[in-house]
Amino acid sequence: MLKEQIKHGTNKILIWDFPVRLFHWSLVLMFCISWITAEIGGNAMQYHMWSGYVVVGLVLFRILWGIAGSESARFSHFIHGPASVLSYTRSLFKPGYKTETGHTPLGGWSVISLLLVLATQAISGLFSNDDIANEGPLYHLVRKATSNFLSVVHQYSFNVLLGLVVLHLAAIVFYRMKHRDNLVKPMITGYKVVDANVTEPKQSNLLLAIVLALFSAGTVYWIVTKF
After folding, report:
1. Which of 149, 187, 198, 226 is a good FRET partner for 97, with 20 to 30 A between their CA atoms?
2. Which residues 6+ apart lie within 8 Å of 87 measured at CB?
3. How far apart (Å, rounded) are the C-alpha atoms in residues 100 and 102?
4. Residue-level pLDDT at 8
């Protein structure tokens, strides 16, 4: 395999570290649980709230990891200005397109959009109510009118989130069909075959990821139990 890669001028490098991959698939799982339990209602709402707490912790961790994590996970690595995004978008439909190492300029803003909407969805849920039997753990900190407003935000932000997920899936299909670029496999294995001259992103310490994950989980636990 290595000889074949050298022959074709390619190299297999680690793109996505374990914390990013674990975050990604944990978020997928929590999204599905939150959606299903909201549809079921009743006693399932307890699991809905628990999954929401996990989402808050995951988003907090991803923000911290986007600042101090591995190179490909850092916001500074994949957030680009309008000119770069426009230039990249044009290149998608031109011959000679080359796959990116990590998030593309478009993909970077997709990540930011998802994190913002997820944060809005999960945090608004902490203050929301359904006028029947369920209230968020921070419901008592705001007035009923405010809680009602945040309940509406919680409801409609899910529709926005669902739209972003559909766009995300459509992008995966587009890159696969148009450029033969499999975006899913690297998010499972962490590795991707790239041009031989591409340098592997610098990896951050796994111990740091554990510390940040514990901090994120502890922060969420403190918020929902101490207020």
Report:
1. 187
2. 105
3. 6
4. 52
- Residue of 104, 75, 56, 93 lying closest to 223 (CA atoms): 56
User: What is the C-alpha to C-alpha distance for residues 126 and 119, in angstroms, rounded to an integer?
Assistant: 11
139-165 pLDDT tens trace: 999 999 999 999 999 999 999 999 999
Buried b (16+ CB within 10 A) or exposed e, 61-94: bbebbbeebbbbbbbebbbbeeeebeebeeeeee
Average pLDDT, the chain: 92
pLDDT in tens, 175-224: 999 989 999 999 999 999 888 888 899 999 999 999 999 999 999 999 99
Alpha carbon distance 126, 222 (integer Å): 13
d(CA 55, CA 150): 17
- All domains of the chain, ordered by start, with CATH? 11-84+99-226 (1.20.950.20)
Q: Which two tokens stand for residue 188?
A: 């499972």
Tokens of 199: 């340098």
